[in-house]
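Weekly puzzle thread! Below is a chain. First person to post its structure in token form gets bragging rights.
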Amino acid sequence: MNEAIQPYSMALAAVAVLVIMVLVQSFSSTYLNLLKRPGMPGLAVDGSHQDLHWRAYRAHANSVENFSPFAATVFAGILLGANASWINALAVVFLLARLAHWILYVMGIGAVGGGPRTISFVAGFFANVIMVLVVLAALLF
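Winning reply:
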């Protein structure tokens, strides 16, 4: 591994795990969609929080929405030489928060709003916000 990138190996591993997680979510959401509507892949999913199919679809959509800002922040941090300890730690926090969010969402655990799923989302969100601040500090100082 490149010596400049090696200190960020934990953050890069978190990005790789999240890529795999989003791909698994995509496959499982599509599979559930085909079970519900054979021969009709790619359509938007109707439903509610009581429907596993809908929850899987929404969990995947939420992961896709949150992955790009996270990955961009990690890569910007690496390119700018931001503090590797902070980038690695925050990337792992983000990964664990997103994993918890996925499980809680698909399993339908907790309240629809303000429950453990919301807490895991907010934890990941703030991990990414703090990581952006670390990257900005590397850029400005």
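Puzzle host: Confirmed. Bonus trivia for everyone else. Residues 52-80 form the longest helix (29 residues).
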